Amino acid sequence: MSLAPGFEVDWNLVRTFVSVVEAGSLAGAGRALNIAHPTVARHIQQLEAQQGVALFERTAKGLKLNESGQRLAEVAARMHREAMTLESVGETVRSTLLGRVRVTIAEVFADLVPELLRPLQDQPGADERYIELIVSPHRLNLLDREADIAVRHVRPDQGELVCRRIGVLPMGAWASVDYIAAHGRPDVASLGEHYFVDGLSTQPFSRALQRLGFQIPASRVAFRTDSLQSQRRAALLGFGIVGIPNFLGEMTKGLVPVLDDTQAAVNLDIWLVARPAVRQQQLLRLVFDCLAGGLGDRFGAERHQPPQPAAIPALNTSALSA
Question: Is the pLDDT of residue 21 over 90?
Answer without folding.
Answer: no
